[in-house]
Design a protein that fits this description.
Helix content is 73%, strand content 1%. With 379 residues, the protein is an all-alpha fold.
Length: 379
């Protein structure tokens, strides 16, 4: 099969499979009570099914294995991502300890490095292994944090995956490009339901996507020329997720709040105060990440010095963006948004319980699995 057809088919197959499987994931989540209920800072109006990660995992795995990624070492990356998807899905149900989650993530990172899918830029095996662990932990948890508004994580991951596909094609790695396009296609198939608040990807979905973006960016990044060129290019591919984590870390430290506490202080929430709907925020995220990916691909073709220069400029702009977004003009409006949302939630219909009347069960399933076109945004 010509590479162009295989790559297009990988994207289309993943998109169609995920779109077709998401209603089944919704029904399964409702039937088993696998729901995210609107408690605390959470702003969605009703109990919303998890298990979006199941549809994403199936769409990505099938498309990638059929169209090229399963015949190479990239299957190791896919297996590691599915492992973290399984752990994240269990965590959505049973709240695993942070220590166990980190331990499993470290193990996954070391497996990737041992398989030749980690960093090899520092000239020292222990140093490269440590860098791989830090990278995987950072990106996986960055996407986990990014999953805070309808469409945010899926849109960002899809755009990052397309950027990684571009780098892979520059390096002649069509198998890796097929995996990247399967990731992007699955996210595209998931978004019509996620943007309208019918289902969440949960920790299972965000950890799946985070692992795949971390791994594909490491492998696709150019490794010739200056030693850290590859790390800079990969950071551009995952740039918005890194920016969001940095913004939240700075904001919560300045406010004296724990880093792992939830809240409406993410990049998405600050954009929502100016842009309004989650759909517009998702478009802004896609546009911003697309620019970073285009710069990464163009500079990779131009030479390592261009990559380093672009990375330095992006880092400066990122630092400037963090302090602008954490200024009273942006953070104050975010606090007001949280107050307004809390007041609204108090007057909304209580979350439907799966153990309630059978009619409620049927109504909830029918509403969530109907063709996309409406819904309640997640905050």
């Amino acid at each position: 099969m010509p590479p162009e057809i295989a790559l297009t088919a990988a994207f289309a197959t993943a998109a169609l499979l995920t779109f077709a499987l998401t209603p089944a994931a919704i029904r399964l989540a409702v039937r088993t009570g696998f729901l995210d209920r609107p408690l605390g800072y959470k702003g969605h109006a009703r109990a919303t099914p998890y298990l979006g990660g199941c549809a994403l995992a199936a769409g990505i795995a099938i498309a990638a294995l059929v169209f090229g990624a399963g015949t190479s070492t990239y299957a190791v990356l896919l297996a590691c991502a599915l492992g973290l998807w399984a752990m994240g899905t269990i965590d959505d149900r049973h709240n695993l300890s942070p220590q166990l989650r980190v331990l499993v993530e470290v193990a996954v990172a070391l497996v990737l490095w041992s398989a030749g899918l980690g960093w090899d830029v520092l000239g020292s095996a222990p140093a490269d292994a440590a860098l791989t662990v830090l990278w995987v932990l950072g990106i996986v948890n960055a996407f986990n944090l990014m999953d805070n508004m309808n469409g945010a994580a899926a849109t960002t991951a899809a755009t990052s995956a397309l950027g990684a596909a571009g780098l892979a094609l520059v390096g002649g790695e069509t198998g890796l490009a097929a995996l990247c396009l399967a990731i992007a296609g699955a996210c595209a198939g998931f978004l019509p339901y996620n943007l309208t608040g019918r289902i969440f990807m949960g920790d299972g979905g965000s950890m799946l996507l985070g692992t795949l973006v971390a791994g594909t960016a490491m492998v696709a990044a150019p490794s010739t020329g200056l030693e850290l060129t590859a790390v800079v290019a990969a950071a551009l591919i995952a740039g918005l997720a890194i920016l969001d984590t940095t913004l939240v870390s700075v904001s919560r430290r300045r406010a004296g709040r724990p880093l792992l506490s939830g809240g409406r202080d993410h990049l998405t929430h600050r954009l929502a105060t100016r842009l309004g709907s989650p759909g517009r925020v998702a478009l802004a995220l896609a546009g911003g990440q697309a620019v970073l990916c285009a710069v990464a691909v163009a500079c990779a073709e131009a030479g390592p010095e261009w990559v380093v220069g672009a990375g330095g400029l992006a880092a400066c702009l990122g630092i400037w963006a963090v302090f602008v977004l954490d200024s009273p003009a942006w953070s104050g409006s975010t606090k007001n948004l949280a107050c307004r949302s809390s007041a609204i939630n108090e007057t909304r219909t209580p979350a439907l319980a799966v153990s309630g009347p059978e009619q409620n069960h049927r109504d909830l399933v029918a509403g969530l699995t109907s063709p996309p076109g409406g819904g309640i945004p997640r905050a």
